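Deviation from plan, reported transparently: 0O2 complex.
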Amino acid sequence: PIKSSAASDVYKRQRVNILNKSTNNFSQEDLKKLQFKYEAALQVLKTHLEILIKDYDMSNHTKSVEHVNARIKSIDSALGKLEKRNYDITLENLEEHIHDMVGVRLVCPFEDDVYEMVDLIKSSDLLQVCHEKDYIENPKESGYSSYHIIVKVPVSFKDDIEFIDAEIQVRTLAMDAWAALEHELQYKSNGSVTKRERDELRECAQEFRRIENKMLTLKKGLR
Ligand code: 0O2
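Because the crystal trials were delayed, the predicted structure below was used instead.
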């Protein structure tokens, strides 16, 4: 997801550059304006979350988030997603149908921290929660676990306030480690993982979860 590597670079080189194919559909000027809006939303969202978390941690004498990652999805990857979903490759469709151009990920030590952070986000006066997916309660077929929240971020520009979609992913260190390794393996295999390998990856996710739950029980015992 949010990082680059030799393996992912090889994969990227093999992809058709959809951005080059689509330059007739929109001007570079419009693309720049849109990218500016996403950058502004990312700044607002990241700063807001960092303040919320610090305030929460100071009140509760805890450290509920190990680290925060933030990224803007590449236009290339977003247009690829549009194409896969059979939408015309336009910036209007990108704004309307891609809700995770702006993404912030909170990586927490334990599962109980994840749900504390989810409640904290939902209690924010600034953010408007549009949609949530609990892949911890209901992991994806791949084994992927995480809590996803789509929010609208208010950004005050020179002439008006715009509400820009963003995705917040909240997950534990173990869920994050599994997702990063699985993503790397998918890239290495150019997405052609066999059924047996998929089953093994799902088993790895369950194993990560078992160890994490064991440590959570230990943590609760130490209180
Ligand atoms: P990147 O680079 O992380 O942005 P929606 O967005 O709700 O319209 P979508 O896109 O199917 O529909 O959303 P979903 O499945 O809820 O979440 C997509 C994101 O979750 C992915 O973003 C990944 O970050 C992560 N994710 C989902 N499934 C997996 C998985 O099996 N393995 C790993 N490693 N990550 C997963 P992108 O857009 O794929 O990429």
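The CA atoms of residues 195 and 201 lie 10 Å apart. We consider this an acceptable substitute for the interim report.
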